Amino acid sequence: MTKGDTLSRRAAVMTGIVALTAAAVMTLAYCILQTNWSRNRAADSLTPQARTLAEAAAEYISGDKASWDNMTEVLASANVRAYLTNHSGRLEAAATLDAMPKTANALVETALAGKEAWAVVKTDGAWLYCAQPVWVDGAVYGVLLMGQPFSSGMGAYWISLALAAAAALAAAYPLLKALIVRAVEPVKALRDVAVKIAGGDFEARVNEHVPGELGELGVALNNMSYQLSRTLYTLILERNRLKHMIDGLSEGIVAVNAKGHVTHQNPALKRMFPEDAARQGADARLRIIADKSIWEDFDSVVRKGGVITRNIEAENMVVRLVISPIIDEIGATAGAVGLFSDITQQERLERTRREYVANVSHEMRTPLTAMRALIEPLKEGMVTSEDARMRYYDIILREILRLSRLINDQLELSRLQSGTLAIQKERMRLEDLVLDVCDRYSSIAQEHSLKFDLDTDFGQCPAVYSNADRIEQMMVILLDNAIKYTPEGGSISVSATWDEKNVTMCVSDTGVGIAREDLPYVFDRFYKVDKAHSGKGSGLGLSIAKELLMRMGEEIWVVSEQGKGSKFFFTIKRAGPENAGA
Predict the structure, then answer these.
(1) Mean pLDDT, consecutive 10-residue segments, the chain of 582 residues?
(2) Residue 421: partners with Cβ closer than 8 Å, 6 or more residues away
(3) What is the pLDDT of residue 17?
(4) What is the DSSP letter of 575?
(5) Terminal CA-to-CA distance of the chain, rounded, Å?
(6) Is 523:556 a contact under the CB 8 Å cutoff?
(7) C-alpha distances in Å from residue 103, one per residue of 36, 131, 142
(8) What Cα–Cα distance (Å) separates residue 90 from each residue in 100, 139, 143?
(9) How far apart are CA 264 and CA 337, in angstroms?
């Protein structure tokens, strides 16, 4: 047995205690039985002598003293006590000088009643006394009390039995040890496997072939280990699956426990609220999200339950926050989870929708209002001059054409965005198309007191693969805008550069330019740098240009500075060998 083998030591101690107890009980029982046997044997030896002496006492009382004297002389020399009393208990003769023990009075009273009696009496040692009635003439004259020393010899027996028990235990120890080790070994194996399972080793197994209850316990322990292993594997699998799902969400998630401490946050939340090095020393929760009111909402949900929903205005972002309580199996609030959804795009789309409706209404109302203001005087006959009527008709026609262009632009933009407008491409050269457009707008620029330049020799420009009508439409849109937003005395130019893949067209002007905050929105519907809607177009031209180029796989962008003019660029793919015959 090893130093730490507590179970074996306990088994050995308990077995030793049981063995010693059994030995002690057996020894005590043996001693009691042996004492009783020794006393009965001594009484059986003393009783006949007492009877004979009683007969001699009867003769002594009748006058024949010879037998009595002879016997008492022999008894005195043999260390045997003999006393003769009359019926009143008075001592009449004795074979010893020792006084008759008072503890034997009960025996005397029994003998006076005509019965034999004996007992071990404690006086100056242990004495076995036998009381015999003395019969004279058919009546009890007195009592003969005869005694001899009594010793059961139990001291030697006790020592012998103790030595025998010690020798038996010493001899049985090796066998006892072997039996205990053999009996305890399966229990130790069960313990070791249980400790391993508790430590997470679910592959540990015990021997199931041990007979009896230990074998059944081994089967149950192995089955429990297998079931725990399966359950833990399933839980880990579900946890990992849930973690991947949560980490893969585009919405940010934060979970807190019942004390408000953060237990989980996913990568999307970190992208929404990047950790600032300046907040390193702050509260742990404020290092995650610096807005204290958000954590107050979490604490409120944990304390009171319910769901809190609100929008958060962050830098360049609008976030929808929904905080819900986590309820455990007994219905108590175990924490809360917050879902952070980036609704910036939805808010922007909603704002764009509202602005779109407002802009369409405004753009349509302007020509309609003008036409109504002109038609009503005509109807009432207030315009009598033929020249005035013709001028009114010209204005009405111009407003109708303006309204028609607005509707046509809207329809074309809708077809482009819905993908229903087919655009056929072919191999073409830009020289004739660009020169034709520039000739037209050169005269228009002169009418507006603007300088118009063509800065590139398009005869050297390589062939492109595109749609001529759409390229012309792009240039018309950009040149229209350049003329509209360039004051008198300014200049407009058209140029191009090319590389191995694309020809990049550029329409530049020295007009009012575009403010930096307006640059991201110049290609949106109805967006105008002129916020007062000064009448310089509907604000759909650049939107149509961007949608057309996107449909053709091209790009458009602008470089501008307020007060210093603008440069609009768009790409056209060069014709390659694959479309040489197109």
Answers:
(1) 54 68 71 71 77 77 70 67 79 73 80 81 78 82 81 63 72 71 73 80 75 77 81 83 77 87 85 67 76 87 88 80 88 88 77 66 68 80 81 79 66 58 80 89 88 90 88 86 89 92 92 86 68 52 80 88 90 79 50
(2) 412, 415, 551
(3) 73
(4) P
(5) 98
(6) yes
(7) 20, 13, 18
(8) 11, 17, 10
(9) 9
Helix, strand, or coil here: 192?
Answer: helix
Provide the edge-to-edge strand list for the sheet that holds 91-94: 91-94, 81-86, 139-149, 126-136, 117-122
**Could you tell me where the beta strands, DSSP code E, fall in 484-539?**
491-498, 502-509
Q: Which tokens go with 402?
A: 């303006």
The confidence score (pLDDT) of residue 188 equals 76
**Sheet containing strand 333-342, strands side by side:** 262-265, 252-257, 333-342, 317-327, 308-314
pLDDT at 536: 53
* Spatial contact of 496 and 454, defined as CB atoms under 8 Å apart: no
Residues 6+ apart with CB under 8 A from 315: none
How far apart (Å, rounded) are the C-alpha atoms in residues 306 and 451?
A: 69
Cβ proximity of 352 and 524 under 8 Å: yes
CB of 180 closer than 8 Å to CB of 53? no
E strands, 51-116, in order? 81-86, 91-94
Residue 150: the pLDDT is 75
Integer CA distances (angstroms), 233 to 227, 237, 377, in order = 10, 6, 87
> How large is the angle between the packed helices 6-62 and 154-198, nearest 10 degrees?
160
Whole-structure pTM value: 0.40
Are 224 and 216 spatial neighbours (Cβ–Cβ below 8 Å)? no
How confident is the model at residue 494, as a pLDDT?
93
- What's the rounded Cα separation, in Å, for the pair 71 and 77? 10
The residue whose two tokens read 């929008």 is 311
Asked if 509 and 560 count as a contact pair (C-beta separation under 8 A), the reply is no
Label the pairing between strands 464-466 and 491-498: unpaired
Place of tokens 């407008």: 421
Q: Specify the length of the chain in residues.
A: 582
CA dist 497 and 96 (Å) reads: 159
Closest CA to 107 of 147, 57, 135: 147
Q: Indicate left, alpha or beta for 156 from its phi (over 0: left) and psi (-120 to 50: alpha).
A: alpha
CA–CA separation, 416 and 422 (whole Å): 9
How would you classify the pairing of strands 491-498 and 502-509? Answer: antiparallel
Q: Which residue has the tokens 């990049």?
A: 504
Q: What is the rounded distance in angstroms from the CA atom of residue 254 to the CA atom of residue 341?
A: 12
Alpha carbons 500 and 376: distance in angstroms, whole number? 61
CB 543 within 8 A of CB 410: no
SS3 335: strand
* Angstrom distances, CA of residue 323 to CA of 258, 296, 301, 320: 14, 11, 7, 10
CA gap 410, 540 in Å, rounded = 8
> Which two tokens mark 255?
């979970």
Are 110 and 132 in contact, with CB atoms under 8 Å apart? no
Tokens representing 192? 């070791």
Under a CB-based contact definition with an 8 Å cutoff, are residues 157 and 31 in contact? yes
Pairing of strands 491-498, 451-454: parallel
